[in-house]
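Known limitations

Files may contain more than one protein. Parsers should not assume a single record per file. Below, a two-record file is shown to illustrate correct handling: read the sequence, read the C-alpha cell line, then continue until end of file.
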Amino acid sequence: MSSDEKVLDFPRVEGTSEENARRVMIEATRLAGRVPELATASTDANAAMGIGAPAIAIGGGGSGGDAHSTREWFDNTGATAGVTRALTVVATMARMAAD
C-alpha cells in the first residue's frame, strides 16, 4: 500500500506507533461523531507506557462524573459511539500493522 492510499477513509501516513495511534484515535473519534479531546491523565495505559509500549486511552462513550468517589456516576447515553470508536481504532491499527 502506498502512503497516499486511504485506510478507513483517512490517509495512511508513516510515523511512530505512538503518532499513528494518536492520529487513528483522533480520526476514529471524528468518524463516531464526536469531537476529539486530548488530555493527560493517569489511566491503565500508564502501565503499558511504563514498560515502553506505546499506549493510548480512549473514552468508552457515555458520560460520568465524580470519579473515584462515593458519588461517582455514569450515564451510558451515546455509549455506542465509544464502541464504534474502539473497534475502528483496533481495525485500523491491525490493517496498518499488516501493511
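...continuing to the second record:
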Amino acid sequence: MLHVGFGAWVNPLKIAAIVPSETSPVIRRIQAAREEGRLIDCTKGRKTRAAIFLESGQIVVSSLTPVNLAAKMMGIAGMAGEGTA
C-alpha cells in the first residue's frame, strides 16, 4: 500500500498516474471529480500538491509531492522483489 498522507493509503496496483496538481487541466479534472463525487481528499486542509488518478476513475489528492509519492512507490516495488532469488 502507498501512504498518501495523514493515515490514508492507496493500492499502488490501482494507480494510473501521479501528477502535479498545479496545471489548469488537472485543476479542472479535480473540480469535475469533486462535483461528481469521485474525489478523495487526503490533504486534511493543506495545499494540494499531487493528484493520483486511479483506474476506477476516482482522483485522490495529496499534500505530498508527486516526486515523494513516486519515490515511495519505487520503494514498495523494490521491497516486492526482495527475497525472490
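Parsers that stop after the first record will miss the second one. For reference, the second record is described as follows. Residues 66-81 form the longest helix (16 residues).
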